[in-house]
């Protein structure tokens, strides 16, 4: 699993790409090239999300499901379904 | 949670809608209307998947994570990540 | 571009796969395998949609945009944006 | 249609949200909250893309399709299909 610093580096890189798209807009670059860059940023965010979800599954979800608190188990499962449904709508 | 029969009814309905799209193609209906029908079928499949995932989380995932088999825990978590990554690519 | 018959064959195949998923539910097959089959059907629908969109772009969109009717041009562009926004939400 | 400045403001806001997610990671905030913020940024990028696509359809696509250059018409249609296929995979 990635470290916190590796996750932050991913976000720094994404931030830089967003600034790059700003320059493309400023310099009236070809629309399709701008769209393609934006889609690349979205893929990078998707990858970031997948790594965070892995940390969550290994951490909080495992702890909650192994606990004797049925309410906690239900909560983390409901949350996972929300994340699944929202992310498949992006 | 939905019963097996309710899940099967959802699939029967989806099957019917796919046949409906076939008729639209056969009768040269407007392309955008065909595309919109297809997107509706995809949403229905997404909803079906979400219900199946809920059953999976409540069943196999909970059983595996509460077990003493670290390998099983790792397996179901890896599977969940694959489902998450594939579904966000549709 | 694909013929009408080729498009219909794609839909027939999709229909068959949906029935296959029904059998998997009936026979209590592993949830993740059911989800993976459903995601494959969604990808097939996506491919079908892309072919229909190509026909639309080559046909109605080109005819409308090359016409002298500004209203028609606006209509097909608005429709394309709706298709783009809806499909990126699936 | 939005002005260039409005598009740039959208990107500035997205950039700010990405920095916000960095802080959440730094402060070990709850994983699901981080994921939800990232999904919100993806939706904002999707909206940005839709506006850029509208500009493209109104501009370059209309100019190319109304031209007598069949090759240009084919090129912009192929590009639109690529954008459609890539964005539905995000």
Give a description of the structure.
Four copies of one chain form a homotetramer. With 90 residues, chain A is mostly helical. The longest helix of chain A has 35 residues, at 31-65. Helices cover 84% and strands 0% of the residues of chain A. The first copy, chain A, has helices at residues 4-26, 31-65, 70-87. Chain A has a single domain (4-87), classed as Metal-sensitive repressor, helix protomer (Methane Monooxygenase Hydroxylase, Chain G, domain 1, Up-down Bundle), CATH 1.20.58.1000. Chains in contact: A-B, A-C, A-D, B-C, B-D, C-D. The interface between A and D is large, with 41 and 41 residues. Chains A, B, C, D: GO terms for molecular function: DNA binding; metal ion binding. Chains A, B, C, D: It holds the Pfam family Trns_repr_metal.
Could you provide a short overview of the structure?
The structure is a homotetramer of 90-residue chains. The first copy, chain A, has 90 residues and is mainly α.
């Amino acid at each position: 699993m990635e470290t916190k610093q590796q996750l932050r580096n991913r976000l720094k890189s994404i931030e830089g790409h967003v600034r790059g798209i700003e320059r493309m807009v400023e310099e009236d670059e070809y629309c399709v090239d701008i769209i393609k860059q934006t889609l690349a940023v979205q893929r990078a965010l998707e990858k970031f999300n997948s790594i965070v979800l892995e940390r969550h599954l290994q951490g909080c979800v495992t702890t909650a499901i192994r606990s004797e608190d049925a309410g906690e188990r239900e909560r983390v499962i409901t949350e996972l379904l929300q994340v699944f449904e929202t992310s498949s709508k992006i």
